[in-house]
Amino acid sequence: MKYVIEEILVNQLRVKFEDESLAIVPIREDMSLDEIDDAVSKYDPDNLPKIVNPNISVGEARTSKILEVEDSSSSNNNQIIDVNSVSQEPQQEFTPFEEPTLYGGLPMPPLHKDQVIMTYVLADYFIKHNNDDSLRKALDSKIEEYVTSNEITVEMVLESLTYQDDNLILKIAEQELQNEQQIDQ
Questions:
Q1: Which end of the chain is more exposed for a tag (fewer CB within 10 A), N or C?
Q2: What is the pLDDT at residue 52?
Q3: Do 111 and 101 contact (CB within 8 A), yes or no?
Q4: How far apart are alpha carbons 105 and 164 in whole angstroms?
Q5: Closest CA to 107 of 145, 162, 164
Q6: pLDDT of residue 75
């Protein structure tokens, strides 16, 4: 049946069919014109099943309400599943990557080393020029959290200064690249 788009709403169209019936049709912004016509056809009066619910009547005033679900297993029978969203491809097994470490085996901090250095430089600047040490206190707090959550000791830090592995950064970069490729697949 022919229809006219009367209003474009957020993720919806309000359409009027040639028999003067109205419908609100859900759409997505990436839909083609053919896909929109298909979505509208699901609300076309000619395509709707002619079923009358005996529990309601015209002119009856009612109040909407949300039903409480008693048993999750019984509600599963009424779920609508979009078959287009169900992947037919076999899922690849995810293998978690090793937690990257710094020289000497210290855990990586939550901030990039350049970010830490720049933050310290800025903290020093604000202390000298504005007499404001709030950035330094915040940074100290983050460092304290890093040290305590990873149980880092002075001995561990000293040992990390003497540890040398010229290929460590390369190994970490390769591992991160492999993990990104795994996630993209």
A1: C
A2: 75
A3: no
A4: 11
A5: 145
A6: 47
CA angle 11, 14, 16 (to 5 degrees): 155
Backbone dihedral region of 105: left (phi > 0), alpha (psi from -120 to 50 degrees) or beta?
left
pLDDT at position 17: 93
The CB-side HSE value for 65 (13 A sphere, CA atoms) comes to: 5
Query: What was the pLDDT predicted at 37?
Result: 93
Whether the Cβ atoms of residue 147 and residue 160 lie closer than 8 Å to each other? no
Give Cβ neighbours of residue 107 (< 8 Å, ≥ 6 apart): 99, 101, 146, 150, 152
pLDDT tens digits along 66-115: 888 765 554 445 555 555 555 555 555 555 555 555 545 666 666 666 67
Alpha-carbon distance of 146 to 123, in angstroms, equals: 19
